[in-house]
Task: inverse folding
């Protein structure tokens, strides 16, 4: 056995080893994922092979020990933008991409582990294993009713990574006791009722998921979009475990977290690379973020931007053209309807015309004057 001291080996690093466990498959999680798959709740950017999600041996070969590594996020502001023409980014998408931050730190940690004779692999979010499930089993925190892993000191505002080692290192965490109790704040605040069942999320409702999806966003989801450009932190901001991690004061990252919506919509490839490529939102590409900006502008309170949005009915991207119709009719129904009907005959793409037709026919279930 190669014994290691978790606090000593991470000395001087920003990351900590917050959990450890012998490598094994998580059978209960497998059953949950199979059930979710049968219910049609798969999402477009996750590993489709359930076994690879729950069994480290399936994904990484011979593994003896799993270490759970955490990197806390700097204190963030929850203060919303008073200007309706500003959007919002999740705290996880502000500043340098956490994948890069974690990878630099874990690289140093791996070098230290290798000096003790250990070999292994690393996963930071983009690998097949379901990191939250292993973090819970390894004592890295408890799973909250909002389905995030909640660390006793950091709440849910931290990044997760996995290190998979070839030998036993003499570390094993213990399960962290549930800390939610009777609290239901996350469930009550969710705009789309994605958390109606405690400790379970209906991913096909989740706003954070839809800000990342390339598929057409359901209209009823759009009506509850708010000013989101990427991600949704509603269920985390209200969590009592996170109150020490957030502040009502503007932090140095506030401006970056609340970009101008029209500027995001108008950004070219160069501006996208400058503003987003090195953030956690950059992987989804320019047009998804531009589409999200359109959805965030789809409110009467943003009607001053009508003339700036109307040219996007002729944007080169079908995604943008389709969504622009929704935004215009939500900004000003009469003007939007007239403009869409005028452009309808010029639109060559069937899918775009079909979406415009659906937008014109949609009967809103939300009072847009309240949005």
Result:
């Amino acid at each position: 056995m190669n014994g290691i001291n978790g606090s000593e080996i991470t000395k001087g690093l920003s990351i900590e080893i917050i959990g450890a466990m012998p490598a094994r498959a998580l059978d209960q999680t497998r059953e949950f994922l199979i059930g979710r798959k049968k219910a049609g709740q798969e999402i477009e950017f996750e590993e489709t092979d359930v076994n690879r999600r729950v069994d480290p041996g399936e994904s990484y070969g011979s593994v003896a020990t799993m270490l759970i590594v955490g990197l806390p996020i700097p204190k963030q502001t929850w203060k919303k933008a008073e200007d309706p023409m500003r959007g919002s980014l999740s705290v996880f998408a502000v500043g340098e991409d956490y994948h890069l931050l974690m990878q630099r730190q874990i690289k140093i940690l791996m070098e230290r582990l290798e000096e003790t004779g250990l070999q292994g692999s690393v996963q930071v979010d983009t690998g097949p294993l379901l990191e939250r499930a292993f973090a819970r089993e390894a004592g890295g925190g408890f799973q909250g009713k909002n389905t995030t892993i909640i660390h006793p000191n950091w709440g849910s505002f931290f990044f997760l990574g996995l290190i998979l080692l070839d030998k036993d290192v003499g570390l094993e965490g213990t399960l962290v006791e549930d800390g939610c109790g009777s609290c239901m704040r996350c469930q009550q605040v969710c705009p789309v009722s994605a958390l109606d069942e405690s400790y379970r999320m209906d991913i096909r409702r989740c706003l954070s998921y839809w800000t990342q999806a390339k598929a057409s966003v359901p209209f009823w989801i759009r009506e509850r979009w708010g000013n989101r450009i990427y991600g949704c932190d509603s269920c985390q901001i209200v969590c009592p475990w996170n109150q020490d991690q957030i502040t009502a004061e503007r932090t140095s990252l506030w401006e970056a977290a609340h970009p101008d919506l029209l500027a995001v919509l108008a950004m070219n490839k160069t501006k996208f690379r400058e503003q987003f490529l090195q953030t956690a939102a950059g992987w989804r590409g320019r047009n998804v973020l531009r589409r999200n900006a359109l959805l965030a502008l789809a409110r009467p309170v943003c009607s001053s931007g009508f003339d700036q949005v109307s040219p996007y009915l002729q944007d080169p991207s079908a995604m943008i053209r389709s969504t622009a119709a929704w935004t215009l009719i939500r900004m000003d129904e009469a003007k939007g309807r007239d403009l869409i009907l005028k452009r309808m005959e010029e639109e060559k793409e069937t899918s775009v015309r079909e979406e415009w037709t659906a937008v014109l026919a949609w009967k809103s279930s939300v009072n847009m004057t309240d949005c």
